[in-house]
Amino acid sequence: MTDTTPFPSSQTSDPVLKAVGVTMAFGGVRALDNVDASFYPGELCGLIGPNGAGKTTLFDCLSGLREPTSGKIHYEGHDVTSRSSTWRARQGIRRTFQRQQIFGWLTVEDNVLVALEWEGGGGGLVADLLALPTRRRREQARRDRVDEVLERCGLNELRYETAANLPIGRARMVELARAVVYKPTVLLLDEPTSGLEEFEVENLAQVVRRLCVEENCSAVLVEHDVNFVMRNSDRVIALNLGSVIAEGTPDAVRENAAVRSAYLG
Fold first, then answer.
1. DSSP per position, 96-137
2. Could you report the per-residue pLDDT of 219-261, keeping only the tens digit for each?
3. FRET partner for 256 with CA separation of 20 to 30 A, picked from 1, 97, 134, 155?
4. Rounded CA gap, 32 and 24, in Å?
């Protein structure tokens, strides 16, 4: 039975992202089975469950990498089920992945800056050739934002380092910086603490919490480190065998009998 403990006060607003009856089938296997899940502005929501529970598949459906077999994905009140992952990313649904996806040949700074380049500079080739003031202002605004994010993520001293030379923990922070530099509405974090040292884990938690509080972002966290999830989440959703088995505050989910049987032991 799903836990019905009242949610934190951050949920007085409408959900910014919502899965409605989402089922994802691979042949005869249902990785997700009629999943309902809502995510709210300013909230950090943890998504837990054993291997094979459907966590990453749900992320794939939310981010647009997969279109569900049935059910809908709603974003800011609109049906975006058939929208691509690129479209969703440009509309504010940003994601990190379990496996590192950095551009190894670029510097740390350029890895982050590239996330802002899709908008273009405005004015086309003429603006480039003439170095028009509007183009210079836009470029400066981008670099100012990159400076802010690099400082926030503890990467400022590494900004000119080639990304391929970074240890895994710093590379993951580069991925986080790239995901948040174009201010996200929803941030989907898939195993973000994997390979991080203790001080990097705490820095990541602070960066994500600040993003939620100061920029009203909805952050969704898939993480095997249950203590990290419980310590930092406002709300937790537990999955098992593709279904939601509990939802509520971290304490309520931790004590839920179905969760303890399926996952926490």
1. --SS----TTSBHHHHHHGGGGGG--SSHHHHHHHT-HHHHH
2. 999 988 889 999 999 999 999 999 999 999 999 999 999 888 8
3. 97
4. 5
Q: How far apart are CA 201 and CA 157, in angstroms?
A: 18
CA dihedral angle for residue 27, residue 28, residue 32, residue 33, rounded to 10 degrees: 140
The upper half-sphere exposure of residue 158, i.e. CA atoms within 13 Å in the direction of its Cβ, equals 22
Domain boundaries, given as residue ranges, for the chain: 9-102+184-264, 103-165
Question: What is the pTM for the complete model shown?
Answer: 0.85
Q: Is the CB of residue 264 less than 8 Å from the CB of residue 78?
A: no
Give the tens place of pLDDT for each residue, 60-102.
999 999 999 999 999 999 999 999 999 999 999 999 987 777 8
Amino acid at 91: Q
Tokens of residue 126, six digits: 């003429």
State the sign of the Cα–Cα–Cα–Cα dihedral 205, 208, 213, 218: negative
Show the CA angle centred on residue 57, arms to residues 54 and 58, nearest 5°. 85
d(CA 232, CA 255): 17
Backbone angles phi, psi at 189, to 5 degrees: -110, 115
Q: Are 250 and 5 in contact (CB under 8 A)?
A: no
Instruction: List the strands of the sheet with 70-75, edge to edge.
Output: 29-39, 17-26, 70-75, 78-79
- Is residue 146 within 8 Å of residue 112, measured between CB atoms? yes
